[in-house]
Design brief:
The protein is of the alpha/beta class and 311 residues long. It has helices at residues 2-15, 79-82, 116-131, 162-167, 174-185, 220-237, 247-254, 260-263, 281-286, 290-310; strands spanning 27-30, 35-38, 146-147, 153-157, 194-197, 204-207, 212-215, 241-245, 268-270, 273-278.
């Protein structure tokens, strides 16, 4: 018991809950058969079997200059997956509204496949094939996503950074470490949820003043290259609740530009799935205030309560 309380205290302190009035011990409830948690009021490795296609190291076409290459023609994908994908014109300008980029945005979610693991492996292979021509010195591998293909809770972020590109896993850098703590504070584990991004390749530019790569927001063209694979991941998992992390994920999941500060904490919907917007962990790392932590923790509590309501 003492060890459990000490662990909880450490988690509260890591999340900044210990110095806030809502930093009471979490009570465990019941939702999807896993441990879930309630907080009194409001603040905020890979399983190989379920990672479903975190890319293996493979040949990497590298250019001599550290810059994004021009968009090549979209390569063919396996027939088993291409039947599920709309034809995407990658020559379009980056002015296409996000709702027009996603043919399935307004379609209701169909039934999940009988064998979710097999289907996710199929999608991962297709993503590797389709995105291979875009690999370079910035994006060296596809960062597909990982977690439980039967998860009831799914997190969707923006895209991989340097650490994620290096390891081929989403959210493993500083933001990922904070997300892990948030998931644990919810009474869950990283292996029991599914984590993915809007884009599957790192977006960065060379900072000439430092000679280093600097991550940036992906362009619409970069999003179009891989967002259909996110749609297929969601169709396969069919989660009960999606939590979007940050403005980029929110924009493309809703098909419109929204300010996270304005809509966070307010339930949205993606193809019939309840969607809770909240701040990206990287934002919390930059603005680690009790107020911001309280907002994120409130959003996560709302997500857990929604899961409890759904049984």
């Amino acid at each position: 018991m003492a060890a459990s309380l000490r662990l909880q205290l450490e988690l509260d302190q890591a999340l900044g809950l210990g110095d806030a009035p809502w930093g009471a011990p979490l009570a465990h409830g019941r939702g999807d058969g896993r441990a879930m948690s309630r907080a009194a009021t409001a603040d905020q490795h890979t399983s190989a079997k379920h990672s479903a296609g975190a890319s293996a190291a493979k040949g990497n076409p590298r250019g001599s200059a550290m810059m994004r290459p021009p968009d090549p023609p979209h390569p063919a994908t396996p027939a088993s997956v291409s039947a599920h994908q709309p034809q995407i014109d990658f020559a379009l300008e980056d002015t296409v509204p996000p709702d027009l980029m996603r043919a399935k945005l307004q379609l209701p979610l169909g039934p999940a496949p009988a064998d979710r693991e097999a289907r996710m492996r199929e999608i991962a292979i297709a993503a590797d094939v389709a995105l291979a021509p875009y690999l370079n010195q910035i994006a060296t591998r596809v960062v597909f996503g990982e977690g439980d293909v039967n998860a009831r809770l799914m997190f969707v972020g923006e895209g991989p950074g340097g650490e994620e590109d290096k390891l081929g896993r989403p959210f493993v850098g500083r933001s990922g470490q904070l997300l892990d703590k948030m998931i644990i504070a919810m009474g869950l584990t990283r292996e029991s949820v599914y984590i993915a991004n809007i884009v599957k390749l790192r977006s960065a530019d060379l900072d000439e003043s430092t000679g280093r790569l600097k991550d940036r927001i992906p362009t619409d063209a970069e999003v179009r290259r891989g967002i259909e694979f996110l749609d297929l991941q969601i169709e396969t998992i069919a989660p009960a609740v999606i939590v979007t992390l940050g403005a980029t994920a929110l924009k493309y999941m809703l098909g419109r530009q929204e300010n996270v500060s304005r809509v966070r904490g307010v339930w949205q919907a993606y193809r019939g799935i309840d969607l809770m917007p909240t701040f990206h962990p990287s934002f919390l790392l930059r603005a680690y205030t009790p107020e911001n932590r309280a907002k994120v923790w409130s959003d996560l509590q709302a997500a857990m309560e929604k899961l409890r309501q759904k049984g």
